[in-house]
Amino acid sequence: MSKAASPAPEFTTHEEVMFFDTDVGGVVHNIAYLRMIETCRTKLAATMGMKLSDMAETGLFPVVVRTEIDYRRPAKLGDELEIHGRLEQLNGVKFWCAFTVRRKGDTENLITCRQALAMVQMPEGRPQRLPADWKDRWTTDSKS
Amino acid sequence: MSKAASPAPEFTTHEEVMFFDTDVGGVVHNIAYLRMIETCRTKLAATMGMKLSDMAETGLFPVVVRTEIDYRRPAKLGDELEIHGRLEQLNGVKFWCAFTVRRKGDTENLITCRQALAMVQMPEGRPQRLPADWKDRWTTDSKS
Amino acid sequence: MSKAASPAPEFTTHEEVMFFDTDVGGVVHNIAYLRMIETCRTKLAATMGMKLSDMAETGLFPVVVRTEIDYRRPAKLGDELEIHGRLEQLNGVKFWCAFTVRRKGDTENLITCRQALAMVQMPEGRPQRLPADWKDRWTTDSKS
Amino acid sequence: MSKAASPAPEFTTHEEVMFFDTDVGGVVHNIAYLRMIETCRTKLAATMGMKLSDMAETGLFPVVVRTEIDYRRPAKLGDELEIHGRLEQLNGVKFWCAFTVRRKGDTENLITCRQALAMVQMPEGRPQRLPADWKDRWTTDSKS
Questions:
Q1: Where would one find coiled-coil regions in this protein (chains A, B, C, D) (predicted)?
Q2: Superfamily of structural domain B8-129
Q3: How far apart are the first and last CA of chain D?
């Protein structure tokens, strides 16, 4: 890691819980959080140089290869949520992002989540190496 | 219409209402029915010769250009639903399908829906003529 | 309509097209627009006095009873969309909202949509009268 | 574990990949598998005595508290998938289910997934003990 490395990139998005996010149990459905996390992850990726508008043309996509998500407390209709994501680790051809979902202004985690991604060239589905400069650009828990 | 025309193609699919179909109002969310209808429409299209496995290769897709849907009575968690679709009308470059959603074994419509589709060549997005033999093959409310 | 009636309420929301909005045809899936429209409709309803946070408690929900949607041109991954909604008509126990989806800063409609809603008391599912003051508050194409 | 314990309950569901399951990358979107897994899990739960039609009335729901999912190979439009679920482990107030997604008749896993669930009394959100007889009824990797 170079001396000039920046802190790991992070990004926060905001969502108001809509009807389509909820289920008959009265709270947000477990799958709906993953859509919110994808929006956060996409904006985080854009700050790292991966633009959506480029991807459809180049066919080089960041692809989720593993998700771990813990549902700690439920969110409800109308809640204003903050989804926070950050680059956590570079690990060979994979990079890990970590997310939390909280109510706005609150410090309690409703959701914690980690996702591993790989850069994949579509339509062949061939994993690509991560850009060589990533591990020098940002301070992460990188493994060599 | 030729003398040998068959009745319009139709298809029935079955769905059990899952949590992800419902919302905090206690009933099926309005958007969820459109997913059920797409499944029925896709199976109906297969009987008409449009196979999913061909589409990704040829890039020729039946594309929804208009949906009209009436929500008459709500379905609930665990309901067993029958989605019935049929080819209703051929109209220039468009064809219309009509759908009902009912509880299994019931005659009351929960949902009625009509969708107009066009055959579109992707990625250019160019609408194609409907296959010439369609109006001879099936008895529909076709307009010339 | 009273002389003091305000223009019909309207609201604009913004969405960036995510992967989960798209399908293998390379464009936004037809159902995804309805989620964007629901978000716009919910914010529009809030300006009219219907707050999400109240609904779960009172059980009085604005329920979609009919949707008409025309898919005119497709949006693509990464597009920045503006969804514009306005109260269009009061009609007995129903009110109609009209929506357009456009690319940011563009004047061409990708999507036009109208939805009729009723105020429904859940869990009984009993439609309620619209608030008596609505037709005096706003200038709409109201039918008596 | 009693001598009379049965093998752990398992269930297999079938899905044909629809347009709404896919994204612009040309394959099934990562979130769509979780909907398929929920359908399998719900049918598996029914075999264990948890019926959807009872839940809305009793307010006692099996709630996902953790998901771990590995995306190994992508499924494509029109693929016929088999989702296999089984009760894997009883662990205090939680039970774990394990899932695989494969193409019909194939032995290669596209997706592997584990989910921990708790029985929660809604709307209070209070976790309940698992039924006392579960650990005697089925042979699982139960921890005391």
A1: none
A2: Hotdog Thioesterase (3.10.129.10)
A3: 10
**pLDDT confidence of residue A57:** 83
Strands C138-139 and C6-7: what pairing?
parallel
Task: State the Cα–Cα distance between residues B52 and B6, nearest whole angstrom.
Answer: 23
Architecture per CATH, A6-138: Roll (3.10)
Tell me the C-alpha distance between B73 and C125, whole Å.
9
Q: Which element (helix H / strand E) includes B54?
A: helix B52-58
Which tens digit of pLDDT belongs to each residue from C128-144? 999 989 989 998 876 64
What residues of chain A lie within 8 A of the CB of B23, using their CB? 19-20, 22-24
Domain boundaries, chain B: 8-129
Contact in structure between B87 and B8 (CB atoms under 8 Å): yes
Q: Which of D25, D67, D123 sits opposite A61 (nearest CB)?
A: D25
Higher pLDDT among residues A116 and B58, named by residue: A116
Residue predicted with more confidence, C125 or C14 = C14
Note the CATH number of domain C10-129. 3.10.129.10
Architecture of domain D11-131: Roll (3.10)
Global ipTM: 0.94
Diameter over CA atoms, chain A = 52
Distance from the A10 Cα atom to the nearest Cα atom in chain B, whole angstroms: 30
Mean pLDDT of A16-42: 97
From residue B137, how far is each of A3, B55, B87, B133 by CA, in Å?
73, 22, 12, 6
Mean predicted confidence (pLDDT) in A62-88:
97
- Residue A135's H or E segment, with its range, is helix A134-137
Listed in sequence order, the residues at least 6 apart from A91 whose beta carbon sits closer than 8 Å to its beta carbon are A116, A142, A143
- Calculate the alpha carbon distances from A122 to A60, A63, D27 in Å: 6, 10, 9
| Structural element, H or E, at residue B58 | helix B52-58
Residues of D with Cβ-Cβ distance to A26 under 8 angstroms: 122-123
pTM, rounded to two decimals = 0.95
pLDDT of residue D1: 46
Cβ-Cβ contacts under 8 Å, D22 against chain C: 23-24
DSSP-derived pairing of the beta strands B6-7 and B94-103: unpaired
Angle between helix axes A30-47 and D30-47 (nearest 10 degrees) is 160
